[in-house]
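Page 47, continued from p. 46.
Same chain as before, 307 aa.
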Amino acid sequence: EPTTQPTKHPGDDPTGNPTQEPTDRPTEDPTEDPTEDPTPQPTEHPGDDPTGNPTQEPTDRPTGEPTEDPTEDPTDQPTAPPSPVGRVLPTDGRLITGIAGSGGGSVVVSNAAGTELCQTLVASDGSWSCAPGIGVAEGDLVRIARTDPSGQTATVWWRVGLPQLNLAISSVRAGASQSVAATNFQPGELVTAVMLSEPLQVGQAVVTADGSVAFTWTVPANTAPGPHGIVLTGSLSGEHSATFEVLAAGGGGQQPTPTGATAAPTGMPVTGSAASGPLASCGLALALFGLVLLAASRRRQFQKERC
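Result:
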């Protein structure tokens, strides 16, 4: 049977009246201030860890703070620390002196047997000196012990004697050979030889155990006639010199003079001890003439006795 009211066909529009019950979540109220304009690229939030991949190119400035004092340029050879004993001066044994690397402390000098010879304090400038109470001869070895203000002690052995230079020839021709032998240098020290006036490097040599060292060299052919010198400089004994005469190259004139004389430690000129030239010839002639007269006188006396 048909219903009392016809069934309505639903339309395309929803019901105009809203539902009585609200939705589960209400619409949020909008903020009063509008959102700022966004940047073209999103802002990255920095993390606690630095960037994992380092840059390939080095930075302009080095990383880390520089030290206050820059590193010194290294030398070719390592620098040796200064000796606490310092330098000992050549001595004949009557007074032993030296210059320590620093002031303060004391010095004790003893002989090879261990007997104390003298002791003294080191001045503020490092200088010191003491006179042995027991005789010390040339060639003796003495032990020098220096104790610095901190209590550290350093020792060195020193050979007693003043350096002497012995020239083979007191006068030599330019272009010829000359030699010098020296004594009383310190065993094991390095000695450098230089000829003057025009500096000529003769060479270097190590002093032997008995304190001697020798050099032989050729005097340059263009050396000007006149006095010249040879200077020996020891790494421990210091500088010592002697002079000799250089004659013009060639034949005539004054002849070279051998000598056995010793140069003074102060570098005074060395002179020959042998006579030379016309004086020597004259003396020889007089001696021969005297021998002839003596022989004739004895012959006359012998003939008278026979009569």
